[in-house]
Specification:
482 residues; alpha+beta; Porin; 21-stranded antiparallel β-sheet; 7 helices; 47% strand; globular
Length: 482
């Protein structure tokens, strides 16, 4: 019973964590230091900054491309079973997903080199959870309808695709202004995994046909694998009645947070290029890396081909040993389609992300806050020029188990002097074609506060929305003012 509850909790955790990690409002929002995490080559002229630990950067995203809670639980007089059949069983397909991510910044510090004013360093750590699960269409149909009325239909086993993880990321970045036109940056990352699960390369089918000796014949061609790490050590603590669950789990998670988990390496890279005085092009690649899982691993696999018509039971010959007939059938199937468990090591790759944008500045040129003839404001350029308004477009893509997932954003940014900057976005992606976002950054002396949210139209009815995203934080920033 405890094991059943444990796996149920892990599945629900993945569902709750589990969107595409797109932060289009924050991207290229140069007043906010956290934008450096989205493009290490962002054009910026902070003298130094320090995020307030644990509250400098918090973000949460969750979405479903196929269904909302309102579709099932709205009080509309329609029977729940009817809605479930129409909205889920018949209304969703294997490309629909439930996915999401959260990120909590633990430490974020940046400072300009004393020896070379063109170089800016940044380092820190954050905790991140990410999960995605695609709707297992054929599995659900088979479970809901059974196989009797689906003769000769092949139920596709590749519809099971899911992955998720919770990790700590330690990072160090270098940003360099190469010229008045170009800024480049790179960020090294060290990953420490808390929990990982994945099942993304399944294939095969299950079908039912007419039998020769019995009414039906079942056919299975399976190549299924589920990989996990970091789960069973936690399960053992929950199962051990002699150990306090809270302190035991806390000890394990603390050890994994301090590089005691499964480790990996990765990097980010990006640049900003001024096409002319008012036109800026940016691009970045994030999380090009891997994690090698060697601790607390468990791999389950089912691989092989089998066909059976069940037990051929003859009376009176077999009336005295039905158990032997059943045991022989089970042994035969296990030999043809062996189920195995192992503790082998395995490698996972991070979900790599691409950002690219084109921005056009216009309107009144604003005064710089800095001693040098430069700026840290969004819309500023290495030539020391910044403007009251900007507009442009951004492309985002992330590598997912069913191929790249993309989003296209149009944005407009307006600056109120050196105190406030506002950015609005309109995004089209898998989850919505009417995603309107809004973000703001306020500078009160050295204190920077920012708040950003997506899909604002969805807040009219939270239960009916399929996507939500919120980011906020608090920083201390210095530009070396006069």
């Amino acid at each position: 019973m405890k094991q059943t509850w444990f796996f149920s909790i892990i599945f629900l955790l993945g569902s709750l964590l589990g969107v595409s990690q797109n932060k289009q409002v924050l991207y290229d929002f140069n007043e906010v230091p956290q934008a450096l995490l989205l493009n290490p080559g962002m054009s910026t002229n902070f003298k130094w900054y320090s995020g307030v630990p644990l509250v400098s950067g918090i973000s949460f995203q969750a979405g479903s491309s196929g269904i909302s809670s309102n579709d099932l639980f709205a009080v509309d007089g329609v029977d729940f079973n009817t809605k479930f059949r129409e909205k889920v069983i018949n209304g969703m397909n294997f490309r629909d997903e439930l996915s999401g991510t959260y990120q909590i910044e633990l430490l974020n510090i940046g400072f300009r080199s004393r020896k070379n004013d063109n170089i800016f360093y940044s380092f820190g750590a954050y905790n991140e959870g990410d999960a995605i699960g695609y709707y297992f269409e054929d599995y659900a149909q088979l479970a809901y309808e059974g196989n009797t009325d689906n003769l000769n239909q092949r139920f596709d086993l590749s519809h099971l695709k899911t992955r998720g993880e919770i990790i700590n990321v330690y990072h160090f970045g270098i940003n360099k202004r190469v010229s008045n036109q170009l800024s480049v940056g790179i960020r090294a990352k060290l990953y420490s995994s808390f929990i990982n699960f994945s099942s993304t390369k399944n294939k095969g089918f299950f079908s039912t046909t007419e039998g020769q000796n019995n009414l039906l014949r079942s056919n299975l061609d399976a190549d299924i694998e589920i990989r996990t790490s970091g789960i069973f050590e936690l399960k053992d603590v929950l199962d051990d009645d002699t150990v306090d669950n809270g302190s035991g789990i806390s000890s394990i998670l603390t050890r994994r947070a301090l590089l005691g988990g499964n480790l990996g390496l990765g990097f980010d890279a990006g640049f900003t290029y001024n096409l002319d005085q008012r036109t800026i092009f940016t691009a970045s690649l994030l999380d090009i890396g891997f994690i090698y899982h060697t601790k607390d691993t468990r791999i389950y696999s089912l691989k092989g081909t089998a066909s059976t018509e069940g037990i051929a039971f003859f009376i009176p010959e077999d009336s005295n040993n039905p158990e032997d007939q059943w045991r022989n059938l089970v042994d035969e199937l296990e030999a043809l389609v062996p189920y195995t468990e192992s503790n082998d090591n395995y490698l996972t790759f991070r979900p790599t992300k691409l950002n690219a944008s084109i921005r056009r500045d216009f309107g009144k040129q604003l005064e710089s806050k800095e001693i040098c003839n430069c700026t840290s404001e969004a819309g500023g350029s290495p030539r020391g020029q910044r403007y009251k308004n900007s507009f442009g477009a951004q492309l985002y893509a992330i590598n997912r188990p069913r191929g790249p997932q993309t989003a296209l954003t149009a944005f407009y940014q307006h600056r109120l002097g050196n105190i406030m900057s506002l950015k609005s976005t309109y995004t089209v992606d898998k989850f919505s074609a009417t995603n309107i976002g809004l973000g703001g950054s306020i500078q009160l002396g050295v204190v920077n506060i920012y708040l950003m949210a997506d899909n604002l139209l969805g807040y009219q009815n939270i239960a009916d929305t399929r996507y939500t995203s919120v980011q906020f934080g608090l920083n201390i920033i210095s530009w070396g003012e006069k």
